[in-house]
Amino acid sequence: MTAGVPVLLSLAPGSALVGAAGFTLTARGSAFTTASQIVWNGTAQTTRFVSQSELTTAIPQSQLAAAAEVPVRVRNGVGNDSSPLVFAVQNLQPGER
Fold first, then answer.
1. Neighbour-count burial of 10, counting CB atoms closer than 10 A to its CB (0-12 exposed, 13-18 middle, 19+ buried)
2. Beta bridge partners of 38
3. Please, which pLDDT band fits residue 1 given cuts at 50, 70 and 90?
4. How far apart (Å, rounded) are the C-alpha atoms in residues 20 and 60?
5. Using only C-alpha atoms, what is the Rg of the chain?
6. Residue ranges of E strands in the chain
7. 9 to each of 61, 64, 94, how far by Cα in Å?
């Protein structure tokens, strides 16, 4: 049986600073399955299924080395990717700490 196309509605957190510590990314949406994977910048990540509307994955510090707009998708199988959301890796602005 083939899984349907997942719908990705939100990411938490939605951004991080360059050089920040690794973190757990939570993807929320619908039509997630136990085989769903979070795809970070084109690479499928080891993903924990929480429910049909929530997945999590660990994003290591190495993925936060430079400012970028990282596309994040959920994949339910070949050709069954959600539309992407953008995760912002941002530089610290002058005066911020």
1. exposed
2. 74
3. very low
4. 9
5. 14
6. 7-12, 15-17, 23-30, 37-40, 43-44, 47-51, 54-59, 68-75, 85-90
7. 24, 22, 32
The two three-digit tokens of residue 34, written as one number: 């136990």
pTM of the model: 0.90
What confidence score (pLDDT) does residue 92 get? 79
Q: Which residues contact 79 (CB under 8 A, 6 or more apart)?
A: none
Contact 5, 24 (CB under 8 A): no
Tell me the C-alpha distance between 36 and 9, whole Å.
15
Q: Tell me the CA distances in angstroms from 76 to 26, 63, 97, one per residue in order.
A: 16, 23, 39
pLDDT for 13-63, tens place per residue?
999 999 999 999 999 999 999 999 999 999 999 999 999 999 999 999 999
Contact (CB, 8 A) for 33 and 52: yes
